[in-house]
């Protein structure tokens, strides 16, 4: 394996290529400054303009969303996991058909395993450009996005029409739906009953982990964040661990499944097949099964990293009403 082969599986934060027309609300005031990033896998973008950094999928997708202050992502739902951790800034997550069922504020490093089957949105409530990193369940990221009806109606008023084929058409650019493609139908009142209005007390304790709690939990071993025996108990088709300076040894090891490394704080030295490089906050590295590697913080000071490992569990629903 050459240095170039390894670098193809590392996406640097500074080299991320955004798409500003990824979703149906790209022209909607308040949401028209969003930047969507597809890092590993095809993601759920509805635009052919979306750049994909690594097309291979390890059983899940990695993406990111960047937004200036007061910019929001409109209410939508997924059929598989959507996990976010805050890389930069301060974010408000909200859910329910009109975003009024519940909300909480996420700080840098916090992670949210959003329950499937509910409408959710998020907004940058910080003072600077913010970035959240995303893990989406399944190789095809659950087949796309289901939008709240009012989102589709408002987007149409601003020139964007979503076809039932999942492709966006911009009437401001003279685009029209193909003759054999109908507009994406709005969910009926009966269908909307399948999307629960979940109170905040049923979401935050079960699906949110705070950064400084994870720092305290990660002692001599990584903290288990998402998994069957983790802090946030779930089986979304992947597991998430939280690594710190004291919870990992600088020794060669391998995993049976694909692993993705996503630094949160500090600089991490990755050794792989005789090659050594440094991973920085916002970088993403894909490690293949049975690939021997070593990982350790490369400088003094605070160091933290999220590690995502594929599992054999199907990428199905994560929400349970109990």
UniProtKB/TrEMBL annotation:
GO terms for biological process: regulation of DNA-templated transcription. Keywords: DNA-binding, Metal-binding. It holds the Pfam family AraC_binding. InterPro entries: AraC-bd, Cupin_2, GPI/OXD, RmlC-like_jellyroll, RmlC_Cupin_sf. SUPFAM superfamilies: RmlC-like cupins. Residues 252-301 form the AraC-type arabinose-binding/dimerisation domain. It comes from the Bacteria. Gene3D superfamilies: Jelly Rolls. Residues 69-132 form the Cupin type-2 domain. One of its GO terms (molecular function) is DNA binding. This is Cupin.
